[in-house]
């Protein structure tokens, strides 16, 4: 990079919205609005490149100073006054603006250029003494805080003191003299705290502010945020220098924020807030009561009309909901910022379809405007909005079971709505839930010792910690509702109570309701209603019905777009007819994983025990003979529920000890019996077996295909049950499409041995039943060795299904059950990964093996069918990866099927949609 050739400063007229890398989001959009002919105060942007040079070398690029001077002079010529000019000062704001907006970065400094000398010039020009001193005190305050690092509270206190002395209610009641005095006080604070005078040289003010913006890129909170959001550390921030316009010039001036549509519902209209005679962040800082934007029409009809016109221009230009910051200076409207606005999940769906209807975007683009995690959010049960609304209007209403009141607002860490009795320790959570109570576990923060309590609870509430705290991570992993970091709550675990603002005390046993989708916490019981979106997927609500709400109609349409374009098929992980039927309603195109071990639980456990304890060939065969017809019936039901669609049945996978009693419990039982001298023969044998089967690392022990190879007759029994079930369905004129899947294969030899046996059994069933059946046979790829030798394995497999849970465990050497609760939160906090590799596929490691196995498997067998049945199959990001590597299908739990369908559609539409943007 040669510095001479580089341009570090762009006038607002030189940029555009596609230059976010270089100009940051704010700068790029200010330029875009300028070029649209909208009223933006003139200014220029210092590029992220300049920031990068500064961060790398410790000083601004040599050329920067002159370039800034040139742009500043041009601005001064244009405005007809010089920065800080004594009789008529040009003032500017210095505003940070990275590519991604980032909490923890430097705030904006307004009114740069004001000095002891120019303040009276400003007063004279504006004909308003008070205004000039108000602007100056704001400058000293903001500059002191953000550039010189003075504790902002000190200014706030001085301000409060001034108001007290005056008997003033708001800042507006302070007059010019009060404000002049306040400036003196503020400057004294600066001198004392920062050890230097407030700078009286306008250009120095500006340069220091620019440097402070650069430095804020490496502020602690900004760094942490980037690690968690996986924003690269070396992007740097841009700095915008923007000539000031004044909303604090009296009652015909003001400042506001607006959305072009309701970010909560998506409805078109005028949404926003306005504050007259105010500047900058006043409107969001809550210093005075704002008015709804619609009332601006009454105050200043012309500016209001102009604002609506601009909102329309912006929507048509950005083809999306925009949010806006604006200022009115003596009846003249100025645009200070815009960007494509954030919105709720429901609004995202509604807006996407509205924009299609308005002809602004096409269906492929509509798919890019929503995502799977938004859809997932919409599928959680929620608190009855009617009940909450009523309460908002004052007091509990008739429909509410018990009075409930919002007592805190924390971080929405894991969605859902949960109601239960407050408990403050894990032990009580477990005890109460065993006796049938629903509980909410409340802790200051959780740690691995709280795990049992978290499992037992309906929901988890903490007063400390953010989105990657232990509580948040573990709750999300369990799919459990969680609100964390509700800092207004004083949790006292010793006294088993918490205190909310206003002195509300919640004792152990009191009912609380927590909303993990919004972070809100209520006392009492808020009624929970099922999500209308789930009612729709379940077929209990029709999108065409008159009372179907706009959201359901929007979801219906978006799902139709997704299904039309997606290439990935979506199957379900389901083990019984009931789940299979639900999966079908949710749009499953087959079963990708039927875990047969679930058919061995409950009463059948004893039969498995017999099988394990069998000493002789005869005993074993007897045990298998009892299991066979039971399995067969299970399969018949399943194939019937999935008639016409593929069903992949995995042969027994888990280690056998999982079917035996717990080793400690059994040892105690046997020891006690022996002491009483009446040892039970069966228990003794069981204990022996348990000891024999005990493994240090069962996850890496006798399981999967290994079981099939060392326990004679086990896999053949299962294959026979599947084959016979297929024969029965065929005879009943059904259309069973069973596929047999062998788990945990590491080498093709294992698969060949199982295959030989299986084929023999299938032949036998063919002979016995006279039905000409055929069954596909394939394997899971869930060990690194299998992935590495996929070319060989494909010789013996008609399909692969990637078991990405085990593959992640074995590639990372993580035992999932252990690591998620112990050190994963530390890893997330340190930014080692932004999200657990069990949640989203690790593209670089595990993903690389998947890619290679796909290539080599298809190399051997071009028509090899490829799927994934790990939890990643329903994870939005991972679905995109599986689309990219060319799998045929993903399989996930029934509830996640709509999410997978949507994301598969989005992945396919991405290429198409990019043209229309
Ligand atoms: P943030 O990124 O925190 O929104 P901004 O740079 O947008 O910070 O500045 C915050 C607010 O300061 C703006 O919304 C606007 O009200 C005010 N502001 C910034 N620059 C100017 C300016 N040149 N003239 C008047 N007000 C400004
Ligand atoms: Mg802003
Ligand atoms: Mg597995």
UniProtKB/TrEMBL annotation:
Which leading EC class covers this enzyme? transferase
**Catalytic residues of the enzyme:** 470 (tele-phosphohistidine intermediate), 869 (proton donor)
Residue ranges of every copy of the PEP-utilising enzyme C-terminal domain listed in the record: 553-904
> Which keywords does this chain's UniProt record carry?
ATP-binding, Kinase, Magnesium, Metal-binding, Nucleotide-binding, Pyruvate, Transferase
The reactions it catalyses are:
pyruvate + phosphate + ATP = phosphoenolpyruvate + AMP + diphosphate + H(+)
Q: Which residues form the Pyruvate phosphate dikinase AMP/ATP-binding domain?
A: 21-58, 64-289, 298-346
EC number(s) of the enzyme?
2.7.9.1
| Top-level taxon in the UniProt lineage | Bacteria
Which residues does substrate bind? 595, 650, 782, 803-806
* Cofactor(s) named in the record: Mg(2+)
Q: Which residues bind Mg(2+)?
A: 782, 806
Where are the bilayer-spanning segments? Answer: none
Identify the SUPFAM superfamilies for this entry: Glutathione synthetase ATP-binding domain-like, Phosphoenolpyruvate/pyruvate domain, Phosphohistidine domain
GO molecular function list: ATP binding; kinase activity; metal ion binding; pyruvate, phosphate dikinase activity
Q: Which residues form the PEP-utilising enzyme mobile domain?
A: 437-519
Question: Pfam families annotated for this entry?
Answer: PEP-utilizers, PEP-utilizers_C, PPDK_N
- Family the entry assigns: Belongs to the PEP-utilizing enzyme family.
Report the protein name in the record: Pyruvate, phosphate dikinase
In its UniProt entry, the species of origin is given as Wenjunlia vitaminophila (Streptomyces vitaminophilus)
């Amino acid at each position: 990079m040669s510095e001479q050739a580089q341009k570090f400063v762009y006038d607002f007229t030189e940029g555009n919205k596609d230059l976010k890398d270089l100009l940051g989001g704010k700068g790029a959009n200010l330029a875009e609005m300028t070029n649209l002919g909208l009223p933006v105060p003139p200014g220029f942007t210092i590029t992220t490149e300049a920031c990068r040079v500064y961060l790398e070398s410790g000083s601004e690029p040599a050329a920067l100073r002159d370039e800034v001077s040139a742009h500043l002079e041009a601005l001064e010529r244009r405005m007809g006054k010089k920065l800080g000019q004594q009789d008529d000062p040009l003032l500017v704001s210095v505003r940070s603006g990275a590519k991604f907006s980032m909490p923890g970065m430097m705030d904006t400094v307004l009114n740069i250029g004001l000095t002891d000398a120019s303040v009276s010039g400003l007063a004279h020009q504006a004909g308003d003494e008070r205004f000039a001193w108000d602007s100056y005190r704001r400058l000293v305050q903001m500059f002191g805080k953000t550039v010189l690092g003075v504790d902002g509270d000190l200014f706030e206190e001085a301000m409060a003191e001034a108001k007290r002395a005056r008997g003033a209610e708001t800042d507006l009641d302070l007059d010019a003299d009060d404000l002049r005095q306040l400036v003196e006080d503020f400057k004294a604070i600066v001198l004392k705290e920062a050890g230097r005078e407030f700078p009286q040289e306008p250009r120095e003010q500006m340069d220091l502010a620019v440097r402070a913006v650069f430095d804020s890129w490496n502020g602690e909170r900004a760094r942490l945020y980037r690690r968690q959001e996986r924003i690269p550390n070396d992007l740097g921030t841009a700095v915008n220098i923007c000539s000031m316009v004044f909303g604090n010039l009296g009652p015909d001036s003001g400042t506001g924020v607006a959305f072009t549509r309701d970010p909560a519902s998506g409805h078109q209209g005028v949404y926003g807030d306005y504050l007259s005679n105010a500047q900058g962040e006043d409107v969001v800082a809550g210093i005075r009561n704002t008015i709804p934007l619609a009332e601006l029409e009454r105050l200043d009809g012309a500016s209001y009309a102009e604002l609506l016109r601009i909102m329309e221009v912006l929507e048509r230009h950005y083809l999306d909901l925009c949010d806006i910051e604006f200022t009115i200076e003596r009846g003249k409207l100025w645009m200070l910022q815009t960007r494509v606005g954030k919105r709720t999940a429901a609004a995202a769906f509604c807006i996407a379809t509205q924009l299609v209807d308005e002809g602004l975007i096409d269906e492929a683009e509509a798919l890019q405007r929503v995502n799977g995690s938004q859809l997932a959010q919409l599928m959680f049960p929620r608190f009855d909005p009617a009940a909450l609304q009523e309460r908002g209007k004052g007091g509990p209403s008739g429909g509410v079971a018990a009075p409930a009141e919002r007592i805190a607002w924390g971080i929405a860490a894991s969605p859902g709505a949960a109601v239960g009795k407050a408990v403050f320790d894990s032990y009580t959570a477990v005890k109460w839930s065993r006796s049938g109570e629903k509980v909410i576990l409340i802790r200051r923060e959780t740690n691995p010792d709280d795990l049992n309590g978290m499992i037992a609870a309906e929901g988890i509430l903490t007063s400390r910690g953010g989105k990657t705290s232990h509580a948040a991570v573990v709750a999300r992993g369990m799919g459990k509702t969680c609100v964390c970091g509700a800092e207004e709550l004083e949790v006292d675990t010793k006294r088993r109570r918490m205190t909310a603002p206003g002195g509300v005390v919640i004792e152990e046993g009191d009912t609380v309701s927590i909303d993990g989708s919004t972070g809100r916490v209520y006392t009492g019981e808020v009624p929970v209603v099922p999500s209308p979106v789930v009612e729709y997927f379940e077929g209990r609500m029709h999108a065409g019905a008159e009372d179907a709400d706009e959201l359901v109609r929007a979801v219906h349409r978006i799902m139709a777009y997704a299904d039309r374009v997606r290439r990935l098929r979506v199957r379900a992980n389901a083990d019984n007819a009931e789940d299979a039927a639900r999966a079908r309603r949710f749009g499953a195109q087959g079963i990708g994983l039927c875990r047969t071990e679930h058919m061995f639980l409950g009463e059948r456990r004893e039969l498995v025990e017999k099988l394990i304890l069998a000493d002789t060939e005869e005993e074993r065969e007897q045990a298998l003979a009892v299991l066979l017809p039971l399995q067969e019936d299970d399969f018949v039901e399943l194939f019937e529920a999935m008639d016409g669609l593929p069903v992949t049945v995995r042969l027994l996978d888990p280690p056998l000890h999982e079917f035996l009693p717990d080793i400690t419990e059994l040892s105690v039982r046997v020891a006690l019996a022996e002491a009483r001298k009446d040892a039970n023969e069966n228990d003794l044998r069981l204990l022996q077996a348990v000891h024999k089967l005990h493994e240090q690392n069962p996850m890496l022990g006798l399981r999967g295909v290994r079981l099939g190879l060392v326990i004679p007759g086990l896999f053949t029994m299962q294959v026979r049950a599947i084959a016979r079930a297929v024969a029965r369905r065929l005879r009943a004129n059904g259309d069973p499409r069973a596929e047999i899947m062998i788990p945990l294969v590491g080498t093709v030899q294992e698969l060949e041995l199982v295959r030989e046996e299986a084929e023999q059994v299938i032949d036998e069933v063919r002979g016995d039943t006279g039905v000409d059946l055929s069954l596909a046979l394939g394997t899971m790829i869930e060990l690194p060795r299998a992935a590495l030798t996929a070319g060989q394995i494909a010789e013996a497999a008609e399909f692969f299904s990637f078991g990405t849970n085990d593959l992640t465990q074995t590639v990372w050497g993580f035992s999932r059950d252990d690591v998620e609760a112990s050190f994963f939160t530390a890893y997330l906090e340190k930014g080692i990964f932004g999200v657990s590799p069990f949640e989203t596929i690790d593209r670089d490691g595990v993903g690389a093996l998947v890619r290679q196995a796909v290539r080599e498997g298809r190399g051997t067998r071009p028509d090899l069918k490829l799927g994934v049945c790990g939890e990643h199959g329903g994870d939005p990001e991972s679905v995109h990866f599986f689309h990219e590597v060319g799998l045929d299908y993903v399989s996930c739990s029934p509830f996640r099927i709509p999410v997978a369908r949507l994301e598969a559609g989005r992945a396919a539409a991405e290429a198409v949609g990019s043209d229309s943007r």
